[in-house]
Amino acid sequence: MKNPNPVQTLLCPRSIAIVGASSSVKKVSGRILSTMARGRYSGRIFPVNPRAEELFGLRCYPSLDAIGEPVEHCVIALPADQVPQVLADCRRLGVRSATIIAAGYAELGEEGSRLQAELVDAAGEMTFLGPNSMGFANLVDGLFATSVPTLEHQSDSGDVAIVSQSGGLAYSASWFMAQAGIDLSYLVMSGNAAGVSFADLLEFFFDDAKTRVVVMLIESDAIVAQLVEVVERRGLVKPVVLLKVGRGETGVAMAKSHTGSLAGDYRVARDCAQHAGLVFVDDLDEAVGCTSLLRRGITAANGDDIAALSVSGGNVVLFSDQVDLSGMRFAPLAETTQRRLREVLPEFIAVQNPVDLTTQGYVDPTLQDHTIRILSDDPSVTTIVPIITAAADYRATCQSLAALTPAIGRPLVLLWTGGSYDAESPGILAQAGIPVFRSANLLVRCFRAMRAASVDEAPLRRPARTANAGSNAVTLSEGDSMAFLQRNGVPVARFAAVQSDGVAQAAASLGYPVVLKQDVSETHISDSGGVVLDIRNADELADAAERLRREGASLILSQFRPGLELIASVFVHPVFGPLLMTGSGGIWTEALGDVQFVPLPASAAAFARALKRTTIGAILHEGRRGASGFDAAVALLDRLARCFIDNDDVVQIEMNPVTVSRGEARAVDASVTRVAGTAGREER
Amino acid sequence: MKNPNPVQTLLCPRSIAIVGASSSVKKVSGRILSTMARGRYSGRIFPVNPRAEELFGLRCYPSLDAIGEPVEHCVIALPADQVPQVLADCRRLGVRSATIIAAGYAELGEEGSRLQAELVDAAGEMTFLGPNSMGFANLVDGLFATSVPTLEHQSDSGDVAIVSQSGGLAYSASWFMAQAGIDLSYLVMSGNAAGVSFADLLEFFFDDAKTRVVVMLIESDAIVAQLVEVVERRGLVKPVVLLKVGRGETGVAMAKSHTGSLAGDYRVARDCAQHAGLVFVDDLDEAVGCTSLLRRGITAANGDDIAALSVSGGNVVLFSDQVDLSGMRFAPLAETTQRRLREVLPEFIAVQNPVDLTTQGYVDPTLQDHTIRILSDDPSVTTIVPIITAAADYRATCQSLAALTPAIGRPLVLLWTGGSYDAESPGILAQAGIPVFRSANLLVRCFRAMRAASVDEAPLRRPARTANAGSNAVTLSEGDSMAFLQRNGVPVARFAAVQSDGVAQAAASLGYPVVLKQDVSETHISDSGGVVLDIRNADELADAAERLRREGASLILSQFRPGLELIASVFVHPVFGPLLMTGSGGIWTEALGDVQFVPLPASAAAFARALKRTTIGAILHEGRRGASGFDAAVALLDRLARCFIDNDDVVQIEMNPVTVSRGEARAVDASVTRVAGTAGREER
């Protein structure tokens, strides 16, 4: 009998009990109850403790049964060994949801995981938060089932929901949000996250009228994948800011390869999240900064054509430096704008963007206003960034910015590199809805994070796909791999698998120069001397063949095709499913770690966007030093992805390098891994 | 009759006059005087204003002459047109130094520059700050010749001197320093910096007993060069933190080259500063963070073996992520340490570094203390980073950290990702000398900035060297350039300058494969089709020669030498003098912008260090995929530098690429620019 969204009953109960309620604020259970008792919550609160009559002004009950009224949610603040009995009581009494504070479960390893599994069984159809949860707060209804200190300082509901696996990160984030003047609608700490699904939480906040931005602080790749799945299904209903901690969380069992060494990396979660339009940030300061922009409707596009102004030339230059580095851009000013600025600015102030008002801005405080008004009339200016520093009293300046905000059709973002000793200025700005940044570097990092989220197209739904087949998979030899790719329309260099005798003849037919390799299924054979590159004639070929044959392997001969080198792979990630990886290849793959992952299936446009973000892709796209073949490389990626989707017995394909030369992209080295027993299937 | 250091008379005068003193705090001159009057300064203050008897409780004088007592420093708070007359009066009366507030000089262009030159003449032997200066504060003596609002909130002298060209950046920096609990010894705003030299300022602070760290906020490359020169002469007496704003300040007129396009970049100032051991930062937050560490004697070495602990697992993981990305390192724990930790920690807490105390740290508040004490006894742990989050009251925790500080032989650096509502905690930490960071990202960025400063050897003094010879320089053809380098012992690929007829013969003598180029003095001929690579035989050679000859140029033939590609250049920077540049070469030079500059002369160790910081250098050094030749590349750089120093008519040499293959490094493309008329000298 679940609600349409079970989160409703979890976070918005009409009544709540707290079992194990304590009178001591030195205990978690006491702190939670005392905080809850002081809140605005209008539902009934039932403390349960057989040794107390009253706690924090609330009548206390000896047991859940003794309450005698419907209880919708139960906060269980008892040690782990007593939790199953309370859950059984809850189910018997029709309690629909619970928060489990006790630790001692999956975070402690195998025995704890077993206990946690029992807990999930004991909860049955109930929805719950935890175990090892620090609770939650519903600030819309004033319900505090937690003791996070910042929340009590917030008088009303805000518009930002935070969901955190970690209690500590939630404490940190809520503090920094409060410092930035951002009020919360909900704060949910899931702890071990064994109960309520993050997909349900995200959908709840997508549908919640108060919430404008959802902030997710996540440790698990699997939860990131859940969030991506919701966005694929429902679209990006609201901005989502994601901080994923733990940069190599999922070990990826995979045939030895460069793909394998990179696929266990944080980049996979980052790229999958960004592909779905989530704003992926690196630290709490970026999470708060992006939230402060997004809740005011300021998005990546606002960073493209900004205008800035300041009385401090030094701060203008510092900000310009950061803008130049980040890919943000100062808007070119229209002629009308320039003419109007020329009319209001003294002659010695240059009409340009950013505008350095010089100390004249102190002499004539109306200059800032006039300048902002004129800049905001320019059709190409999307956002205006006034920069102020430190003063004893900034109220007049802040009031003037606040008064401008409704009058101009552009958002203001204040870069306040300093502060003031009056107590009111931050409140004036918050009231006016003006986001404030204290660091130029942070401001541009936030715009960069927002820009990296690709919201230009709806992500495609992904097919169910088996994960890595593990020990059941075999890696084809180089020759078989190349043949497989060729049959599937993926461009490869011309090649021939050869026996001891036919080498010279095959080379003559391919045309020199050629490459001779041992035809094995290892990716690092260049390290072990199993490859001879750039063989120019029959004599060199004979030498090379002699040497490689001595090692006992059969051989493969291919065109020598120097060029710019890419890596291109497809594989099934255990959490994120089918992915394509591409980036700088050959010796640069590991040195730069410069790869992008794209969830499959994806459009050619998505491959092009990913490739452009890598160094080698940017070189090809910009055609540096006559480089060409960007489109050919994208077409190759598209063919590779199709080949993978069409052959569901294929576990992994790595091509490294693909060389791009004279407008053509072809794999010169490839390794295909398939489920054992199917490898020869289509050859029959 | 200058003092040993003229800054003494500027910043520490025994008496001070302020000409143009106003009664209105709405005017800069009034704000300065009112601030000065409230300060602790024990010298005489003489306001000068013919229309006032008394200002802010001080007797006011109608003119400098009317004072009738010795005046050591004069703050000139009058418009630009009256400044020369006041300076003349000052000199007549023996005033030794001045601060010039008026703007309207070199910042406005040519006419202003002329006025500024006149000002310098008018000042004669006097030392002065400005023009366009916001003044200075000497907090050791309590003298405020400025109205920066934060300074009055500082009760006593601090230990950090800030020198800023920009007034606005000084306002910002002093605010953020105050927020971080860092008190200043001096704050100097030089404005247009036409008077006192920054070399003198740096030496003054090197010798000042109160100052522990010097922070320089600089816009001009020339001033960075002055600071570097002082360190070369005197050594790095104290830590210097440098924020250089304006990332492309010096245009570098240079023969068209990759070197030229990169040498106008901020990287030159960065690398020269770091080579001298200055800590080069990117924003004010890093400047404040590095200062907070360095003033406590915490340096780059402290980042190598840190230990961390927290009750918040999420924050531990977040910090670990940042540490992994930055090249900082968690110390491996000694066996004794592990055994002792096992004794105090509950069984379910893993003994590892960083230590996640879990919520057990709340249950038993002594755990943090015990853990820190044990970690601090570990010989390999250099620094301990406790991580705390948000609480209503953190006094007990902060007091406990403060009490530990004198007891343990290791610095604590607190990562406080949050805050508290008690007012005392920050003060307790500041009193105990514990630096506090609110962001893991900022903490690791600060250690990275400190590590990039190379203090492992005294920089070499640099020879005087003429700057670029500009129009008087000629660029040699490829063949002449290669011949010049070869004569000077710089390894180059085998080559031959050829006439129309001798091509085939020369190729046979060099051995195929070969490269044929037009023998011209352009660096981008590969863009224009003037190069044919990888010619395999006489037929291909004939085709190539036919094609290139049609273009009308003479030809140069060389070995085709594929390999890993470096760029290596030497040139005279107009500000920083002789420099060597190296980094990733060929197509990667512009795509990665991955170059390092080394001031010449320098040791081979300095070249090795610079090369290792580039991607290609790291590949060579780590021997990825069998790459070798790092030592050969360093030897080539050393030969190139010697060649440049030995030939003082050489203006620039660029070799791009140098290829490294089979342990050998050789230039395959080179361009030498020399002063006209000397090019053929040694050939004679």
UniProtKB/TrEMBL annotation, chains A, B:
Keyword set includes S-adenosyl-L-methionine: no
InterPro entries linked to this entry: ATP-grasp, ATP_grasp_subdomain_1, CoA-bd, Ligase_CoA_dom, NAD(P)-bd_dom_sf, Succ_CoA_lig_flav_dom, Succinyl-CoA_synth-like
Record keywords, A-Z: ATP-binding, Nucleotide-binding
Domain ATP-grasp: 482-681
Transmembrane segments: none
SMART domains in the record: CoA_binding
Domain of life: Bacteria
This protein's record includes keyword Nucleotide-binding: yes
MF-aspect GO terms: acetate-CoA ligase (ADP-forming) activity; ATP binding; metal ion binding
Protein name, per record: Acyl-CoA synthetase (NDP forming)
